[in-house]
């Protein structure tokens, strides 16, 4: 019947559902066994970790006498949960450490290069200072003014920096710098030259320098000098002619250089001008005092002094030197401010001769010698002596009277 068929269908459906439930039960039981197995493994691992932590605590307590920390055992589960994250963090840390190490190596390489460049620059600077005879001694703030009641105009003229330079390994130049009067953006230096002076003595003598008075190799070359401070034999009381101070010159003040630099030049060209011209002036006076010392050892010489205002005057005054020769000729030499550094720095101003010398011969010798373009008085006198020797044979001699028998 229909009812029996429906019951059979229901029974069949229930049997199928029962089979599905049985299968699902078997799967769940298998999964439960797997979970239990995993749990037991985790528990064993945790026990191992606990044992390791306890051993570590006991070792730490033994070595450092520290009490055991019970909280370490409570953090095991958290450590297990963060294990994967820690692995990622370790990997990122390794990458960051490697990057930092590489950057450190690059930085160390750059530092090494900069140190080598600095050493090279310092060595080159020392060589340039030695070759240029210019060394920086100090750069300091200027001392405060002594008078506290100075006016505002005077305060503007006060120096702020003091620079001391060693010139030619002997002389010390002091330069006072003050603020610039105008605020020019194109001006790279905020200071200008206010004053300049020599700290060391400005008096030069031929005894300060060693020279060869018999050196005639180059007539137009300036005499090479070497500073000296003592004799070779300090126990000897006898001095050679060049060790006696026979000629002395005073280097004039440098106010004219400061005035010219402040009038025609802007910073920093003004300080360059003052330093360069100061060195040139010192070199010129050293060469001149040596030239005059050699001149005095060879000829009967009278040297006129140079006034302190002659160099700064406009136009600068010449120095007068009178020399008398054995050929009965006396000459008056004029040494220009450029003597003996430039050609034509010295010339014959007047020449007088007796004992048969005609005025024509004297003027011709004067023109010939002045046309040589000599640097210093020594080379000019050598040219004059050669010209005298060439013409001396044609000079009529004074007749001698016959002797009485």
Automatic annotation (TrEMBL):
Region called Disordered, residue ranges: 53-73, 139-160, 212-245
Stretches of the chain forming a coiled coil according to its record: 4-38
Keyword Coiled coil attached: yes
Low complexity bias spans: 221-239
Polar residues: bias regions: 54-71
Keyword terms, alphabetized: Coiled coil
Keyword Iron-sulfur: no
Protein's recorded name: Uncharacterized protein
């Amino acid at each position: 019947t229909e009812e029996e068929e429906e019951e059979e269908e229901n029974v069949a459906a229930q049997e199928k559902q029962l089979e599905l439930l049985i299968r699902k039960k078997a799967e769940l039981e298998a999964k439960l066994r797997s979970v239990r197995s995993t749990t037991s493994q985790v528990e064993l691992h945790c026990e191992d970790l606990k044992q390791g932590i306890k051993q570590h605590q006991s070792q730490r307590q033994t070595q450092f006498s520290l009490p055991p920390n019970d909280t370490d055992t409570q953090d095991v589960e958290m450590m297990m949960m963060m294990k994967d994250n820690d692995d990622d963090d370790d990997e990122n840390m390794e990458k960051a450490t490697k990057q930092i190490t590489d950057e450190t190596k690059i930085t160390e390489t750059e530092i090494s290069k900069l140190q080598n460049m600095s050493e090279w620059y310092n060595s080159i600077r020392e060589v340039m200072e030695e070759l240029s005879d210019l060394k920086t001694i100090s750069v300091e703030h200027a001392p405060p003014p002594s008078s506290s009641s100075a006016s505002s105009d005077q305060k503007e003229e006060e120096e702020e920096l003091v620079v001391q330079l060693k010139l030619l390994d002997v002389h010390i130049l002091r330069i006072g710098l003050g603020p610039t009067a105008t605020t020019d953006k194109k001006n790279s230096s905020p200071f200008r030259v206010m004053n300049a002076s020599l700290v060391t003595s400005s008096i030069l003598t031929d005894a300060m320098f060693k020279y060869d008075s018999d050196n005639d190799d180059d007539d137009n070359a300036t005499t090479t000098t070497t500073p000296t401070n003592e004799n070779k034999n300090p126990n000897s009381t006898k001095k050679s002619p060049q060790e006696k101070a026979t000629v002395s010159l005073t280097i004039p003040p440098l106010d004219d250089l400061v005035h010219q630099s402040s009038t025609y030049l802007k910073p920093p060209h003004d300080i360059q001008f003052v330093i360069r011209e100061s060195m040139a002036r010192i070199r010129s006076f050293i060469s001149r005092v040596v030239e005059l010392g050699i001149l005095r050892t060879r000829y009967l010489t009278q040297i006129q002094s140079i006034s302190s205002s002659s160099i700064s005057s406009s136009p600068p005054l010449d120095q007068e030197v009178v020399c008398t020769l054995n050929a009965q000729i006396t000459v008056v030499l004029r040494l220009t401010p450029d003597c003996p550094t430039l050609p034509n720095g010295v010339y014959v101003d007047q020449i007088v001769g007796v004992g048969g010398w005609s005025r024509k011969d004297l003027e011709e010798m004067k023109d010939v010698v002045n046309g040589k373009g000599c640097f210093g008085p020594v080379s000019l006198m050598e040219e004059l002596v050669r010209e005298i020797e060439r013409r001396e044979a044609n000079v009529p001699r004074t007749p001698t009277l016959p002797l009485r028998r």
